[in-house]
Amino acid sequence: MDKYQTYLIDLDGTMYRGKDKIPEAADFVKRLNEANVDYYFLTNNTTKTPQQVADNLVNNHQITATAEQVITPSLATAGYIKNMFGNEIEDHSAYVIGEYGLKSAIFNTGIKLNEVTPDVVIVGLDYDVTYHKFEVATLAIKRGAKFIGTNADTNLPNERGLVPGAGSVISLVETAVQHKAKYIGKPEAQIIDFAAQAKGFDPAQAVMVGDNYNTDIKCGLNAGVETLMVYTGVSTHEDIAKETLKPTHEVESLADWDVK
Predict the structure, then answer these.
(1) The pTM is what?
(2) Which one of 19, 31, 121, 176 has the lowest number of neighbouring Cβ atoms within 10 Å?
(3) What is the Cα–Cα distance from 181 to 215, expressed in whole angstroms?
(4) What pLDDT does 219 receive?
């Protein structure tokens, strides 16, 4: 299939590189709008709210976007704990390592903050992470809290290079508690499943667009969604040549993709 009803588009490395523009990105989104094709931005960024993500796309990269078109692991994780606790979520508690984008999504569910005996510990990227935060999370998990990681990205591409990502933060807690987190963001199918349910699109008619095989493309593969690999970010031709499961499509840049 090369005509899709819905595009799920990665951000870092696909729409931009840190503060640097990817020139083809804005035109690609413009062509999607002209073709009346639905699209959502499926990012592993948990530090920003959907509105902040959309504002960055519009103001700094001239890419048409609204908050309603942004899907983050923060939203998907909030959806996951809503399903976990149901109507009794306000009777439960959480401890969160992360930035405002993650904390606002989690605590807007009605779940309470608890640093000692929370029901769940959620860990994401935190630019001001400290030993104390790791200690609180570790002890809570050791006491029985469920351990959720937003996403396993070890690195993030920005204008300075590949900097530490959420996975680097989460792995420290995993080492301390000696077991893995339950992951929600890319490459897990969970985030696409959440997006499809929240936005009402058919995954069989969607395509996942991204630059990172280990997050974007594997997310599509895990969710049974076709994929479009673009070589403007993390993964290289040499990386893809080593993989048994290939992307559905590969392009050097989004300028090479024909929106139908």
Answers:
(1) 0.92
(2) 19
(3) 16
(4) 97
